Amino acid sequence: MTSPHRDRAGRPLVAVTGLGIVTSLGEGKEDNWAALTAGHSGVKRLSRFPVAGLKTTIAATVDFIKAEPFCAPALSQEMAMRAGVEAVGQAGIGAPGDFPGPLFIAVPPVEMEWPHRRALAEAGANGEDVTYATLLAGARTGKFREWYELFLFGTVAENVARRFGTKGSPISLSTACSSGATSIQLGVEAIRRGEAQAALCMGTDGSVHPESLIRFSLLSALSTQNDPPEGASKPFSKNRDGFVMGEGAAAVVLEDYDHALARGARILGFVLGCGEKGDNFHRTRSSPDGAPAIAAIEGAIHDAGLSPDDIDYVNAHGTSTPENDKMEALGLASVLGERMKSVPISSNKSMVGHTLTAAGAVEAVASLMTIATGRIPPTINYNVPDPAIELDVVPNVARDANVRYVLSNSFGFGGQNTCLVFSGEPG
């Protein structure tokens, strides 16, 4: 009998056996990887709804899936289903509809949108009783039943769990722009604690609609460089002016390494380390000294049993906002030291936009594909380097490299910082 495989802290090793992805670049790993490494952009002028009067009129939308203009939950659910089908199918785990572990899924904040609010107001104006008590009482049987289910925070998770037959109560989470990475962290922790032998971890977000554009614009977070659309997202460039909203979903099947080996699964990689640090500095801004981000980066590397010198590539959060990119560079400089100038770094968001709650999961898939292929996707639109950011940004064209360990950063509004370390080998 062979000894169980354990990491340096004595915990079960966490292997990756399935990957799935949907972004504005296409559906599936093959199409997405070809586009990412070719430096293609999924950012385009918005056609889903009128944009007259909006400062930002572009986004990286998933237009090949039919979506209601004001129905983020429905699109988020459909993308999650498609990414899950690809990931679970590749893993070949369990019988169809009988996944042998829990679901951890990052979903966008859900609230009733403009057309539905207007309909409620009109109902009230017509003399209908639309108080909270009556709406609640009739939610499951009355005329508003569809809306009740559509805008219930846990609905996407429940439907995805039912589709794949995951075990236990599905966990919905929303930790801003680090949500997708947090879903993977929760899966890793469940396997390490021995609570599960497998976990389905996802991030999904279909939130491009007028209200979200207006809200982010009011925060001065979005790029207004609308022409040409594909040139707007320019992480780490001196002329960056904000992020571009994107839509997408990604799924990762995690397993206890011994469980995966016992069933003859193909191992795609390993999640060696997770680091998380909260920051209560501000509701949207990051701490100016970068301390929480630094702690998350250091925590992930330490959790992996590695040193900063082991990191071969950084899949950056890289949103293209002036403040975030500066803060991320500060954090990497603090942890990597002079190596910050020679460790390649790139941002997938330059091509797929900022997929918000899905971003950490989308970038996890890209990180593992980088390890598998030895090819680093570029940061496109990197034509005017910021002299204050001394990073080895992979500019405009993919780079071939021997990549063993990848650090993937996810930093969210409100101080949600989650970093992951991936490898192709168990240690």
Automatic annotation (TrEMBL):
Domain of life per record: Bacteria
Keywords linked to the UniProt accession: Acyltransferase, Transferase
Pfam families: ketoacyl-synt, Ketoacyl-synt_C
UniProt keyword Nucleus, yes or no: no
Annotated EC: 2.3.1.179
Keyword field contains Protein biosynthesis: no
PROSITE patterns in the record: KS3_1, KS3_2
Protein name: Beta-ketoacyl-ACP synthase
Pathway: Lipid metabolism; fatty acid biosynthesis
Family note: Belongs to the thiolase-like superfamily. Beta-ketoacyl-ACP synthases family.
Classification via SUPFAM superfamilies: Thiolase-like
UniProt domain Ketosynthase family 3 (KS3): residue ranges: 11-424
